[in-house]
Structures are given as C-alpha cells and as structure tokens.
C-alpha cells in the first residue's frame, strides 16, 4: 500500500513545454482521492513551484531547492531550511565576484543576484535584487547558491571540491545539456526532506513512491520503497529504480501510479 507519492517537476511531472500533461494530473487526483499524500519535490524555488501546487490542488508541504527548504504550500511559510556555513557562503560569494561568476543566492525568502543577468533565467535582473559585494552583506547563511555554465561550474568545483564540511556541490544537467550547480547543505536533499516528512506522518519508507529523472532525485528514489525513474532518466537513476517508465511517454508519472494502483500487474519497462 502506497500512502505518499513524491514527484519531481521538470522532465518528470512536466512536459517539455512546462505544462502538466492531463494524464499525469488525472492520476495524481485519483491518488489523492484514495487518500494518498502527493508531495512535489523539485530543484525549483517556491516562487517557480507555487502555480503547479495550486493547479494540482495540493494540501501537503512542498520540497523545494532540491530539499534544502520545505514550505507549507497553503501559506508559503517555511517549515524548515538546511543552511550552509556562513563563512563558507561568504567565501563562495567573494570567489564568484573575483571570477565574474553570476550567481543566485537564496537568503530566507529572498533571491539575490550578484550580476545584472540571472544565470538560471538568462535574463536581466531587477535592480532591487542585485546585491554588490554580497559576501559582506549576507544577513544570514543562505540555503542555496546556484549558477550555470561549463566555466562557472568547473571553477567552483576546482576551488571548493564536490563536498566539504557543511556543504555539497550538486552538479547536474537538464535537457539543454548545460551543467549547473546547486551548492547546498549536505542535509539539503530530496531524500532527507522526504524522510523527515514521512517520519512526521508516521509513514514507513515501504509505503512511499518517489519519481524523478536526474541526479538530485537519486536520494529520494533510493530511500523510497518504490522508486520510479522516467524512461529518459540518467543511467544512474534508472539503475536504482524499482520501475522505469516507457521511454518517450510524457505521462510516465501516470503510468507508474496506475501500475501501483492496479497492484503492479505489468512488468517494468527497461
């Protein structure tokens, strides 16, 4: 029996045009009607997730920023955050200024930029979001620092390594093939956030499904009792999943849910 379904957004629940396919939406609605909690678990911040939460008419907490922040979706208030060490965050901000690396820094409920162009959206930044000499102005330790691009990611990895005391460089690629990095507290993972929520609800991992496609989904797919990989997922995610959806099926989330609700009568795709 599945009591919780955690689902990634981009390239999992969402179609390439960033809409929710009707089949996926219907399957999640059916799951909720059967008493299953549905949890969004995404690398996006809350601001870029809220519309999907409302479209699905959810009432559950939302795992955002790859697990470093959990939000009460009904109010937008933070339930918890995992921040990185302040001294480390200042070092990263100073290094990025020195190397002309454009970054997004997630501070409380705000997003700060150190340059005029946003590295995620590749668009001009509103003047009130640009913070010069950010290392000296951080009011508290951020929970995420983000940038994108071969040069930027390579410089950060060379300078700081992939993991250290209180921080983790979560490096991945999406459909455009351009590497990006989210710098997080090591506890800021989707798997840890999902585990903590299920512990509060008294739901064991055996009664949890988690679906995703990329490296930042690995922790929750490995932890969940029933891990689902999209048919186009990176090989490492497909290898650890209990079920792999049909390749090129944009309604892969629906496929996996119906498979579960019908008592797993069909074999996993390979």
Automatic annotation (TrEMBL):
A GO cellular component annotation in the UniProt record: cytosol
Identification of the protein by name: Hydrolase
NCBIfam families, per the entry: Cof-subfamily
Source species: Tumebacillus flagellatus
Top-rank taxon, per record: Bacteria
Record-level Gene Ontology MF annotations: magnesium ion binding; phosphatase activity
């Amino acid at each position: 029996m599945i009591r919780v379904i955690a689902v990634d957004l981009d390239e999992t629940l969402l179609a390439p045009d960033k809409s929710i396919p009707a089949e996926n939406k219907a399957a999640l609605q059916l799951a909720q009607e059967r008493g299953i909690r549905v949890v969004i678990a995404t690398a996006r911040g809350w601001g870029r997730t809220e519309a999907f939460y409302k479209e699905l008419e959810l009432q559950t907490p939302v795992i955002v920023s790859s697990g470093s922040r959990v939000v009460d979706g009904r109010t937008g208030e933070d339930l918890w955050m995992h921040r990185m060490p302040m001294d480390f965050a200042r070092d990263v901000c100073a290094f990025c200024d020195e190397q002309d690396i454009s970054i997004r820094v997630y501070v409380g409920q705000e997003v700060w930029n150190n340059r005029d162009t946003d590295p995620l959206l590749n668009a001009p930044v509103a003047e009130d979001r640009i913070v010069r000499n950010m290392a000296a102005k951080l009011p508290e330790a951020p929970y995420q620092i983000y940038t994108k691009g071969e040069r930027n990611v390579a410089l950060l990895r060379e300078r700081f390594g992939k993991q250290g005391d209180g921080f983790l460089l979560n490096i991945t690629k999406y459909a455009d093939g351009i590497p990006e990095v989210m710098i997080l507290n090591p506890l800021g993972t989707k798997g840890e956030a999902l585990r903590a929520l299920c512990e509060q609800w008294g739901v064991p991992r055996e009664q949890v499904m988690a679906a995703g496609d990329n490296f930042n989904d690995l922790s929750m797919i490995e932890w969940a009792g029933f891990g689902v990989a999209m048919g186009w997922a990176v090989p490492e995610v497909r290898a650890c999943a209990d079920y792999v959806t049909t390749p090129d099926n944009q309604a892969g989330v629906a496929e996996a849910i119906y498979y579960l609700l019908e008592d797993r009568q069909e074999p996993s795709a390979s």
